[in-house]
Request: fold
Amino acid sequence: MAPGMLVKGKWTTERNDHDPTGKFNEKPTTFRDRITADESSRFKAEAGRYHLYVSLACPWAHRTLIMRELKGLNHVISVSIADPILGDKGWRFPEPSVAISDSENSTQYLQEIYVKADPQFTGRVTVPVLWDKQKQTIVNNESREIMRMIDVEFAELATQKIDLYPRDLQQQIDETIDALYLPINAGVYRAGFATSQAAYEEAVTELFENLDRWETILSQQRYLCGNQLTEADICMFTTLYRFDSVYYSHFKCNLRQILDYPNLWNYLKDLYQRPDFKATCDLDTIKRGYYRSMVDINPNRIVPKGPIIAFDEPHDRDRYSVAPRSVGQSELD
Ligand SMILES: N[C@@H](CCC(=O)N[C@@H](CS)C(=O)NCC(=O)O)C(=O)O
Reply:
């Protein structure tokens, strides 16, 4: 499962993601620069300057793709999509990307991009990565921050004037994203990668307590922060979309399926059926990515055929029926 990491710019397959009690530990990401709409940073939001490295399998990278699609920024920020199967050398890109034009190989590994940005880099080589073609460096590799920058700092360049971080909800959105992170977004990984019974049970219990809580909240409102789509919904969506096909079986998160929760299930269909979300969703690739990469927990690498999930079947969320507000509208309401 652990493919390797960089130590002082050199690739090694020796890596330990667990603490002595068998808990899986996510390490914080390390490139944390900011793009700004104006000249106040070294990275100004500009069309054609930035590039995203993603995997369609990865829920963190998926957040950034949804945001790019929602804002209508496909022509502004280019993308490279990795082979979904994480190999011995980490994420691999079948085509050399425009971002690094001097690559000698026809394939390119994400580790090369990290080393280009920091020749002494030590750490995990993760997607998503936001790359600056002009300065030839990584701006940021933390999905939550990349998503926010695409939403806020690229707003002037966006063709869809939708605001996913409206001023009156900002605190609530940040608190919600925080609240989702450990028990739900990372919770499925904490369960799936646990190497002790106690660590697994703790993660699964917390995960379902939190899903139960959101089920109740979503019985009263359309989205996580009220009746308006926000960044928090994107963070929830990428976990829920993978849940019944991957986390339920592969990661043993099997107290309930999302299908068993009437509100979460209808909420998931509601989001999925938006063309901007749907355009970024590829469940077959996701399943291949998880079941074929993580040999520690699925040694024969067989990808299950099911379950069959009717994401396109009608949902009941129009009963709340408030469309997302556009930029600047929040103050007027
Ligand atoms: N906190 C990071 C997590 C990113 C992450 O863990 N990505 C996984 C894929 S789902 C990855 O690239 N793993 C490769 C590795 O661990 O070597 C974020 O939100 O961007």
Q: What stands out?
A: Residues 197-217 form the longest helix (21 residues).
